[in-house]
Amino acid sequence: MEQFLLSLIAGIFIGGVAGYLGTLMLSKKMALVAGPLGHLTLPGIALALLHGFDVSLGAFPFVILGIILIWLLEMKTKLPMEALTAVVFASGVAIAFLFLPIEQAETALVGDITKVSLSEVLVTAILCFLVFFIIKKIYPRMVLINISEDLAKIEKINVKKYNFFYLGAIAIIVALGVKMVGGLLTAALIAIPVCAARNLSKNLFQYIFLATSFGAISAFLGILLFKFTGFPAGPLIIIISASIFLISMIFKKGT
Amino acid sequence: MAEPILKVKNLNVKLENEEIIKDLSFEVKEGDVLTILGPNGAGKTVLLKTLSGILPYKGEIEWQREVKIGYVPQRLPFIRKTPMSIEEFFELKETSKKEIEKTLNSVGFEENFLNKNIGKLSSGQFQRILIAWALIGSPDVLLFDEPTTGIDIGGEETIYTLLTKLKEKRNLTILLVTHDLSVVFKFSNSVICLNKCPICQGIPKEVLSSETLHKLYGEEVKFYEHHKH
A2-251 domain in CATH 1.10.472.10? Predict the structure, then answer.
């Protein structure tokens, strides 16, 4: 029972903050970036599983590597994001499966939040609070940067500085996300609640509130379902999330 | 004689190794309405961005001391991806609700517009929102980049009537980019024809002959004549 509560708490934190962060990522195609980032963490997750340390810890350096890669490819070349996704996805999966025993593949690919320890939950909660406050602090200016870098620069906003904190927040959330839903589903964890929220929102306040709530609710219900069905929690969380999205399509306000 | 509010000397702008603006020099006096005229890709938008200080350049750009600049971009394609009310959009800028309301009023919106979703506006309404955004903070100079598509003639008519009104009321100096020749004659007292290199500059009626226009637009000028019957 205690284990179940721990995983619920960790799940709600990660799911909620992932949804919140996602509202910044959905504009400008950044939500897609979470995909290659998640995939790239697979070798890190594999290392963590083999040597028995925290999955998020293993994933983190690879997320940083991925962010540097994306930054380089975005800034220095004109390679389209799809190409990047393909290259990074393939490399991440290929390297991970060079040395990851197949029995542990499931955890790497779709995560496992159901065995978190108390200390892991504490670290997760602290990191989630940290990311939450970073996002809250940079939010208005990040929105303006997303809408138009030109307008932001005219307002004397240091775009590079804000992007740095923004990418840092993404790195932490992806590293935490892979623990919950694995390298394959992290992009979905971030993107789906936001898409559902966008369908139902008329303004920024509703958008943020709904995306955060949908993220947290999906994690809660997914882990609850795991408790009753025994299916892996990661995929269940994403399926709940996708169901919320489908329902949101029905209630979508005009176009 | 009014003091120049802006002096530009030998301006050169290069982006990704491509020369966009070459050897441009001009002055703008307080209260002027300067039109920047030229075909697509002539560097008009780049010039406005350079003047507003967001692009690197060589040469001299000298604004009068402590001059405040408002910039109206051509369009903001990403804004429709985020659900946002008009009030929330203006809150991205450091300002008060009172100023938001006052400014929205001055471009012809009522208070109850504040809660409207910005993605649901018509292109003409959105254009006025962008003008209001630029007017927050009471700039002395307005840089206006006209959208080339998406606004019907009727809408355009009101935008320029509105700009004239705002210019009188707020004592603005305006630099605008446009494709529309009739706007140049009706609205501005000074013009720069630009096709990477400056082609002509001065008072519109004096410098805009069919010869200079032909030089500026090449074949395209026929389209304009046809357009005006």
Answer: no
